[in-house]
Amino acid sequence: MTAGKFIVIEGLDGSGKTTQVNFLASALKRKGKEVIVTFEPTEGKIGQLIDYYLKKKVALPPASLQLLFVADRLAHVQSLIEPALKEGKIVISDRFSWSTVAYGSISGLDSRWLLSLHRYCLTPDLFIFLKVKPEVCLRRISKRGELKELFEKKEKLRRAEAAYDFLRQSFVEKTILVNGERTPQAIAKEIEEKVFNHFGF
Q1: How confident is the model at residue 147 (pLDDT cuts 50, 70, 90)?
Q2: What are the Cα distances from residue 38, in Å, to 21, 125, 139, 157, 169?
Q3: What pLDDT digit, counting tens, does each position of 109-140 carry?
Q4: pTM attached to this predicted model
Q5: Cα–Cα distance for residue pair 27/92, rounded to 1 Å
Q6: Could you give all domains of the chain from N- to C-terminal order, each with its CATH number?
Q7: Those residues with Cβ within 8 angstroms of residue 97's Cβ, 6 or more apart along the chain or in another chain
């Protein structure tokens, strides 16, 4: 069976990742593709501990937190992503390795060290990055009426944005950059066209 494809949608909190993951999944299904939608951190045991930290329920040193993200990711790959890819399915993840690098760097951790933690992890076939200014992201989060998690502060989002710029430059051939400050439908149309073109669907 032909190996599947692994697509990751990344961006700052409030950039519209989840919406675009679902739009892309629907578009691929209309093409007759088998699609698995997933997200990180996961709902597994390690992911639950990360969630407690993000909601300020537990305290962890920055490096320990990022190692937990990587541990959660490796379990995610082994339990869900790799088996689905071997079956020829397309996996779309809301966040993956770039989030660890971008948000870990906020705490003063070295971006290259954070990236090196993934040397034994699966590399996605394609990254889609939604470019949205931090102030726009925060307005969207406020409109949702959601509790702001630890990283959802303007100055921290700016530092994460700089780390994402570093990552996009490091994975140019595997990255699609999309202006995420338009209507969800316009963004989805561009992503659909570029993904189909990239893989020849």
Answers
A1: low
A2: 9, 15, 25, 23, 25
A3: 998 999 999 988 999 999 999 999 998 998 88
A4: 0.91
A5: 12
A6: 5-199 (3.40.50.300)
A7: 8, 73, 115, 118, 121, 124
